[in-house]
Structures are given as structure tokens and as C-alpha cells.
Amino acid sequence: MKEEFNIISNLIEENTRVLDVGCGNGDLMKFLQENKTKDIRGLEISKEKVQNCLSKGLTVIEGNAESDLKQFPKSSFDYVILSQTLQAFLNPELVINELLKVGKKVIVTIPNFGYWRVRLQLLFKGTMPVTENLPHEWYNTPNLHMCTIKDFYNFCSSKNIKIFKSIALKKSRISEINKSNLNYKNLDSHLGIFLIES
Amino acid sequence: MNKNIDTKKIIISNPLKLDCGKEINSFPIAYETYGELNSEKSNAILVFHALTGDQYVSGKNPITNKDGWWSYVVGKNKPIDTNKFFVICANVIGGCMGSYGPSTINESTGKQIGTDFPIITINDMVNAQYELIKYLEIEKLFAVVGGSMGGMQVLQFVSNFPDKAKLAIPIACTSSHSAQNIAFNELGRQAIMADSKWENGFYSNYKLNPDKGLAVARMAAHITYLSEKGLQEKFGRKLQDRDSLRYGFEADFQIESYLRYQGSVFVDRFDANSYLYITRAMDYFDLSKQHKGNLSDAFKKTKTKFFVISFTSDWLYPTSENREIVMALNSIGADVGFVEIESDKGHDSFLLDVPSFLKTLGDYINSTYKVINERRI
Fold this sequence. Notes:
By secondary structure, chain A is α/β, with parallel strands linked by helices.
């Protein structure tokens, strides 16, 4: 968690305007507020989590990214962050498009379904993978559209979405992803972090 | 009501031009305050009351001898903690708790003004209360807060005075009264005016009171403040002090008895003409129309931070209408938070003991106060 927050924080310039989509209990918002910028908003679907955020004085709106991102004007945020949430949407492509409209830049982090530990579970156990990062069983997972680092990388290329920076995380080891090491990083990382722009 | 109310009062000497075109001057505003204003004058919160509320937010209401209407929210160690904040609440103009209204005595005739009182609007109410803030010499309020009609006043206040409040919390309200809202208000007004004792609004001249009509108005309105589920759970088809139906028109059912009671206690504390004037003001409220159909323009000039709250079972000012306010604010990049609180207590939720509402509101106000003070805005 902490590593992911640090990486996201390093991608963001100081005193910019940030929206955290699917902000949960506001941990990342708090972290960025202390380290980078005061001007940060959140969007969250769970009432309980929204109330937790508001109790901390964070500016959060209860809403659904799939329907409620439309209300923000074009390029109204310098950065929009989607941290480990993309896989939970009914229509991830639509959400990415909305994010790219609302934010000048977008930071997406992806729990990597191509990570070798995940692959091994399916290969040897023959069951849907359950890992530290993907703790749910197939019957109760909120994750509808799991993807791999490679999937997302290829998605961006095919949709002409510019990737400014792509970072792989394994435990606390950070490395850059590029075209030549993509297959390896896709196997050896549990999280992918992408800074993109339309 | 036209009682000898010993209430804090100021006389506004500046003439106030009303939306209806008339001008009023030397008129009274009755108000109450709780807590202490700090030396920086940075801890003041202006609370706006709803349709039948008054300035007695907290503690004992000296007129009714009951708890103030927002005792769950305002008071010592309450969400709006009067150990920390200086809370101000004024009776709206048009009201009957000491501010200028139809039951005010016209000094030249010695009689109540009655329906010679001019039609007032939410805008007029807010402008009148701003005079009170000036009188109290508060340059900038920490917050303006209110539910229902109080929320409408919050929106109007920020629109009229974009740099006079750091934080605005409109609760369970709307930016424009819907056809359904107007319909219910019209029902109430017609009930009052159909009472033969209304006398075109000059009942006090004949020592009459249209209490039957006012009670019916209150009963009808009261239903709109509750949820269907809440009513069903609390009353169902339970009978009142009897084992079987009486085959008559007495209050067989508990819900009938409850509504009759609500109606009867209301007429003791509220003036029928005030009910007409204030419901009219609510019906005329349309903040987006004031800005040529663009609600966002109402807030263009403000840096005020907003926190909008709605309730799941409120069908009078439903979440969708509260969300419109949030969307208008978002579309101009304003600083706005929003939550819909789970409650089956209907529109009245904002007045009642709804723990998640009280906690969220209190925590939010306190942490925002801390953040704003740290930043020394």
C-alpha cells in the first residue's frame, strides 16, 4: 500500500488539483494531502466509506464513477487517480474514457492478473486465484474485469492513449516497464502503475 | 404568535427592498445565540430554520417549553458544539416568533398586519438576516447551515454573499420547489383559507383563529415529512386506546390520533398567516431561474466549501434534487462533498436522532474547522 502511495505521489506535481476515483476510506487522499497538494477530491460509491472520509474532513462525493464522472467539466483536474478499482467496473473502457476527459493526466493502478503467483494457482490448483492482493473467492469478488499489465499496456496502444510512465511493483521493488521487458514484468509484478493521457 | 415574547430583537433601520417590489424599513429581527464569539470572530455559525422552526435552536424553547428544534445537532458537546462555536439563529421575516411578520402589530392601527403583509421570498429572508450578521459585526461566518427551507436559505445566502461564509451545509433541500412541493403547500394554504375563521387573514381583528384549517395544513404536511416505511412500522393499523373499530369517525387508528395531536399542538405555537407567507416563499424559490436557468452561475463567485446531505427515505426533497446542487457545483469546480444518509425517518431525518447523520456532520464540521484554522484562510 505504502509503496503504491509513494509511487503515485511521485507522479504528481505539487499543488495541483487531484481527483481520487474510488477513494475508499480516504487513505491515499490523506497521504497526498500531507505530501503533495491540499486540493484533492474523492468519489466513492460506498456510503459508509464516504462518511468515513467526510468525518476526516476530506471532500468526497458519494457517487458511481460509471455515471457520475460526467458532471465534472473537461480537464477540470490536473490528475485523476484510479487505484486498484478499474477491474471492478461494469464497463472499464467507458470509465477510462471518462477519466481521460475529466483529468489532464490519469494515474491507473492495476492488480496484475499475469503475476506468476496468480498464474500458478490457476495452472496447478485449477482454481480461481486468491492472493494477498486479490483476496476474494470467485463467488464474492467485486472484480468483474481482471486484466494483466500486458493487457492494459496493449489496451492503451490500441486506443492511442499515451503512456507517460509505466511502473511495475513487486513487493517493494520498483521498476520501469517498457516494450522490451513487458513480458517479464507482466510475469514478475503484482501491481502495475500507469500515468496516461488521451 | 402575538404573545409577549421576551426575545432578543434588533430593529433593522436600513430599508430592505423586497422581491415583490415593496420596501420595508424599521422592522424587527428576533434572534438567539449560543456559545461565545471568539476574539478573532472566526467561530460563528449561522443556522437557518425550516418552515415552522424559530430562533430557538437548542436548549429550552421559552415559548413552547420544549427542547429547541435542533437539539440533536446544536448544543454543548453536540455535533455543532457550542463550547467551540458561536451559533446564531434568527426567526425569518414572515415568521411569528418576534421577527417582522403578519402577526406584527401595525403601530398606526394597533392591529396585526395580517394579509396586508407583503409577499416575501427566501431571498428577502436571507437579506434580512444578513443585516443581523452586520449588526453582530461578523465579517465572515465560519459556516451557514440549515435543513429543508433552511437549506434553501444556505444556498441563497452563498449566492447573495459569496465571500461571507467559509463553509455551507445545505441539508435535505432543493434549489427549486417542485410541482409536488408546491402542490402540498397549496393544499395547506387552502385548508387555512377555507376555515371560516380565517376572515381573509384579519382573524385577529375579530379575536378569531383559523385553528382547524391550520391544523389540517399541519397534518397534511406532517405526512410528507415521514416515510411510508416509517409510518407503517410505527403505526401500521394499530388502534388507539380501543380493541375494535367503533364504526364512526373518531380516531380509531393510532395514526389518526397522532396526526390530530400534531395538528392541535401546532396551532398553539404557530400563526396561520405566517404559514401562508412562508410556504409561498418556498414555492417561489427557484435559484436557477434567478440565474437564467443556470444553477452553477449562482455559485460562480464563491470560494465557499460545500457539504450537501440528503436522506434515502426523504421523498419531499429527494436525493436526486440534492444531487442537482452537487452537480451544479461540480460543473464549476467548486469544493463540494456529498453524502446520502441511510434513514427510514423521511424528510424529518435531519431533525431527529439519526446517528450516522449526526456523527458525519459533527466530524466534518470539526475537522474542517481545524483544517481551515490551520491554514488561516
